[in-house]
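DM from R.C. (forwarded with permission)

"hey, sorry to bug you on a friday — could you get me a structure for this? deadline for the figure draft is monday and I only need the backbone to look sensible"
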Amino acid sequence: MSRFAPRRIGATAALAMALAVLTGCASEPDRYYTLAEPAAPQPLVAPPPGGLAIEMAPLAVPERLARPQMVVRGPAGAEVQVLEQSRWAASFEQELRDALAGGVAARLGATDATRGPGVAGVLPWRIAVQVQRFDAAQGGQVEAALSWTVRRADSSQRSTCSWRGSEAAPGGIDGVAQAGQRIVSKVSDAIARHIAALQAGQPATCPAAPG
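My reply, with the result:
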């Protein structure tokens, strides 16, 4: 009888270890973040009587960012960390596209025809955004550089602008997400002002680069 005791003890220990591992995994669920602005922005202009529509093309982003996991730089700066348990609500390029389209449409009082029907008889302003940089460091800052091209659906003429800047990202990964939202707010504002000027027949002025 006693010769079987060590085996029973070993099985019990293995079960306890397995339960500990499962408990540890369960205590760290995936967390999901959005780049959408937390509050609806104030409109910049009143939409024209016939209505206004915008349409955001799929974004071009660096390959390392084209994933749902959040990507941050390590302490040394050269290392890139992919955070499996900290994720955007969609893939980064889709999350950023939706956030920018929503932000621009809200500021212009426009219909967002990016993923749905537009306004009958209203040709949308088409926006193509390219992300050159979106580098985040926990406890540091998020640095971003984006450019965009705007044109009316009935015209081949294009107007291009760019934006670059950074936002402080204190407080770990939550701070990174909040910094990203502030960048979305600033870029949405710049794109909306660009379209508002073109809509009014005025020369568009690109945002000044921060000093």
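R.C.: lifesaver. The CA atoms of residues 17 and 23 lie 10 Å apart.
me: no worries. Helices lie at 5-26, 92-108, 172-199.
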